[in-house]
Each structure stands twice: as structure tokens, then as C-alpha cells.
Amino acid sequence: MSTNNEMKNTIPNDQIHIPNFPLEIIIEILSRLPVKSLLKFKSVSKSWLSLVSSSHFSKSHLNISSRNNNLSHKNLLLLSMYLPHTLYSCTLYSTLHEKSNLCVNKLNFPWNPSNIIAGVSLCNGLFLICIGMYNNLYLWNPSTRKNKILPFSSCTKYSRCDVTYGFGYDEFNDDYKVVEIHGVYDIHYVYDANIKIYSLRSNSWKIMKKYSDALFSSDSGVFLNGCVHWAVAHNDGSCIYWDIVSLNLENEKFGNLALPSFDGFDHSRSLGDSSHFELGTLNWSLGKLGDFLCLFCDYYKVKLDVWIMKEYNAKGCWIKSVSLPYVRGVGPCISPLWISDIGGEVLLHDGTRVMVYDSRNDEYKRVEIREMDGDGVGAATVYAESLVSPYLDSIENTPEMQ
């Protein structure tokens, strides 16, 4: 058979015709392509370079990629369990349909692999990575390989101090923001949260008003609907009660979301009470699946219920989506990563492995990852690849466009 080049050589140059599509059609086509292809197409011409590099195009591409139900547009990011760390990625489609000998791509990242990754937050394909004991912060896009080291927040060192982060997009101001929370508490259950917010557009931190009588979960905040969310314990002087605290990134004001009435959990308890790891003891955490805020209710070594907020902060909005049974051989820390539209399959991380639970057969299957056989999977997350830059519209891009 003739190759494409051989076929071209048989046609006189003056008969070769390259279609001149309208710009709108070109944008529509390019907006549906994977990031890897778009990075290559930046070399086609100056006009394509300018187009693909623009923030308007990256937003259009992200909107289409996020809405697309084709699982090949979403990736799974995998972190090895032991130091030095390695990072891998693969498509969500291949993870679910090639459960044995899954082929993954090793990623290069800008920090020292011997440093511990202390926290990860995700927004629009852009990751906030907290590295090491001194909380060095990186913004990193694994699809474009671009990264930015955030300026140090100059936080004061507190005794018995927990640090948690949130990360999200302020659409009104076209700005990505990082929230840093230092939780301070003592033996008398007095809680305070010292809060700072970083703006990518201004590349600076500012101090917010202290949030009193509250202890924020050490888990990274969950971004959804323009707000970052945390599980928070409050102290009213007689008892401790839990709810979900949200921070609106546009007006930088706090709000509260109610919890559902899930089994076996009292939203308040007397001061001094403690929880023990007895069979069925409930521990809950916040998460995000697709476009929905979720609660993962882990009844220790019994089951894990997944609640989904179907309509944001509406009355009666919490719906129990699926219940995962505990079986021997599955790790005690189950974190759902993705649920199929019909709820038949759940992709999850059990602390050391990636697994798929099939509710129709009530069966767990391990996803075999050839490159990570001896390492174990320390963490996993699903993300939509994007062209979003950790520099927004900074000068960093201008030499490339000239």
C-alpha cells in the first residue's frame, strides 16, 4: 500500500488544496482535541500558536472537556506510596476497561521526589501541591507540565497547629485563589482558625479575619460552585457539633451547609467524648464526584455510604448514591474516585491500590498497574486535562507568541 507521503508525491503541487475553514470551525474542532495534540499544533503556524495559547481558548477547551461524558477526556493521577515518589497518569476509560496490566505514563514534576507530598487540591486541571514539612506550595498542570512556586505566606509558627489548604477559581475576577488555614486549639477545646488567601492574579497573600470557635478538618478543602468546603467542628461551650463550612472565593465570605441525617451519627457530642475504632464506628469526610459535593460515611470495617448533594445547598438535596460493603482484603480507607452514571461501577482507592466495585455482582476487582507493582498506590485522583496555566495571562507566554 502507498503511504500518505507517496500519495502526495504523485499529485502536482499546484493541485494540492488545503481547505480554508472559517476560524469558528477551526476553534470548534481544536476545542475537542486532547491537550497533547494541541501542544503539538502550536507549531503549525503563528495564528494557531496565538489561538491555543490564549486564555479564551483554554476556557472553551476546559468547558467542553468537563462536560464531555467520554471517559477518555478524563485522567487518573497516581502517586506511588513510598519515597522517592513517582507520578503516573492514564485515561479513566483505560482504567475501567483494561483492569489487567494497565499501561500508564510516568510524569515529570518540578519538585524533589524525595520530599513528602503533604496535600493536594485540584481545580480545572490545575493542582495545588503542598511539599514537605515547610509547606512549600506549587501550582502545577500535569497536562502542559507548567508550574509555579507560590511565595511563602510568612505564617507564624503555632504550637499544636494544624494546617489545611483550599484551592479554587474565582470566575467573577478570573483569578485562582489558595486558602491557607492554621487551626489552633488547646486542652480546653478552644478553637481558632487563622486564615490567609493567596491570589494568583496579584501573586500575593493577604490576612483574613480570624474564624473563631471552629476546628477545620486537616483534609484539603473541596472546590465546587465557586466555594471551597471543609468539614468543621464547632464549640458552643457545652458540646461540639459538626457541619460543612464554605468560603465563597468571589466575596471571600463564609457560609454553612447542613449535613444529611445519616445513620448512626449525632452531629453534636459532649465535650470530652472520644471516638474509638470499634466495629461500625462512623467517620465521615467530604469529597467531590463529577459536579457534585459528596459525603463519604465510613462505618469502620462494615460499609461505606456515599451521599451526593444533587442540588447545591437545597433542602432535602442529599441522596444516598451507593453503599460499598466491607470485605476481607479491601483496605480500611476507601476513597471513591468515580461512580458510573447508573451507579453500577465505583472506581476507588483503598489506601494501597486502585479497585473497581461492581454493585451488580457485589464484587471488587483490583486494577493491575504494571509499572507500580512493587510501589503501591499511595494516592489517586480523577481530573479533566486542561490548558489552564499557573501564570494566567502573565508575561511568561509572550515570547512564545512573537
Task: Summarize the entry for a quick read.
By secondary structure, this protein is mainly β. It has helices spanning 4-9, 23-30, 35-41, 46-53, 55-67, 92-97, 398-401; strands spanning 74-80, 87-91, 105-107, 117-123, 126-131, 136-141, 146-149, 161-170, 175-185, 191-199, 204-207, 211-212, 214-216, 222-224, 227-235, 239-248, 253-257, 268-270, 282-289, 292-299, 303-309, 318-325, 335-339, 345-349, 354-358, 363-366, 377-384.
Verbal overview:
Keywords: Membrane, Transmembrane, Transmembrane helix. InterPro entries: F-box-assoc_dom_typ1, F-box-assoc_interact_dom, F-box-like_dom_sf, F-box_dom, SCF_F-box_component. Residues 15-61 form the F-box domain. This is F-box domain-containing protein. Pfam families: F-box, FBA_1. With 402 residues, the protein is mostly beta strands. Helices cover 13% and strands 41% of the residues. The chain has helices at 4-9, 23-30, 35-41, 46-53, 55-67, 92-97, 398-401; strands at residues 74-80, 87-91, 105-107, 117-123, 126-131, 136-141, 146-149, 161-170, 175-185, 191-199, 204-207, 211-212, 214-216, 222-224, 227-235, 239-248, 253-257, 268-270, 282-289, 292-299, 303-309, 318-325, 335-339, 345-349, 354-358, 363-366, 377-384. It is globular and about 70 Å long. The model is unreliable at 1-18, 270-274 and 394-402 (pLDDT under 50).
